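Folding Query — how this chain folds
Tokens — whole-number codes for backbone shape
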Amino acid sequence: MLLPRIGQFRSAARQTRVRKTVIAASAAILLSGPTAAVANAQPDQPALPADLIAAVSRDLKISPEEYLHRADLAQQLAAFATTAQRQFPQVFAGSWLDDGGKAVVALAQGPGADEARKAATSAGFEVHNVAKSEAALRGEKSAFERWLEGQPEAVSALVRGVVVDPVNNSIAVRVEQAGLPMPNFVDPSRVIVTAPPVAGEQLQATPVAGAMQTGPLAGGDAFASIAGKTSLRCSLGFNGTDRNGNVVNITAGHCNPDIASAGSGNAAGVYELAGDRPGAQVGTFQKSVLGAQDYSIIRINDQAKDRFTNNLVRQPGQPIAIEGVAVPVVGAPVCKSGARTGFSCGIVNAVDQSVQVGDRELTQAFSANICALPGDSGGAIVSGRMALGISSASSVADFPICEIPNLIGALTGNAPQLFAQPVSVVLSDNPGLKVNN
């Protein structure tokens, strides 16, 4: 698992209202019909923090205007896809942003194909003709999972996950080594060799009594979680409130060193960190889920709640102010904030995937080509100014610094992979839970 580190031309108001209307706060939200034409909308000059602009330019090689445009366009595409999945289930075959930032809708032949094409083109999206519908691809994914259940341990243990790959109109399989036997419906070119996510280390530290600090705590800031003699270092996720109005932070499930005690009087404590030294306690784990999902809800103490009422995600310089919640879309630009490796950006390359993390299977996850290391677990992932995900697992967590796997990725094409828990799924599973915006 990733990464508890141990040891160590609208007005701005109008634009915000439109985003909050379009973006689904749950992956299951439904629309009444195809979205209206949006492709020609031009954003104003972005009021983004200077360091975010620098990160977007460095990591994505695009302008801040293009970053915001693609992030918004991805959510418009997600809304269209939700409708198309219901209205055109026999022909809809997925959607994504291509390398140039164009919104693409894939369609197979079948009943409703003409209507689906008209809806997509009317919305301003490019249409690709493909052989298989999304429903057919999901059927192949299920067939692969059944096939894998019948394989010997020597094979199944080396398969790290499977995902529908709409860009290539196939399923993609992640494996630890090349040459594994595969069923005949799996395209050999879509068998991807990747390192398995690794577990984090323990933080050998005990709380140090001290006065509560007063500054705001934001997504990406470090914290220590302590239960008895076990302690972990992680990153805060998104600040919010639960159904009862209590101040909370949403972070990773595996950041709780005693998951069974969550919500009880013996729940693991959450402490602010100054370097490697835990300071005052700021909360306890109210709920932790680790298995198919990976998230925790931290209940913030009354003494610390004013520090968590903000909607901020940390990055060098001015933090990012969150405006709403987004859903993952292939091709969308994203940036992560983590206490170990800081702020960096990449592109979503898979959504709604299953990935083996240790002895558990994380489902509904998305991934992006971003390096994350122990200590980044639980940190916030944003797209544009929207809350998107929580850092969960990494393919390069055993490297000491990101420069090494980033260089290897540039030379070999095998880029680091960050696997993440969608925030939208957490909100859907917890009615009344909200992200501050």
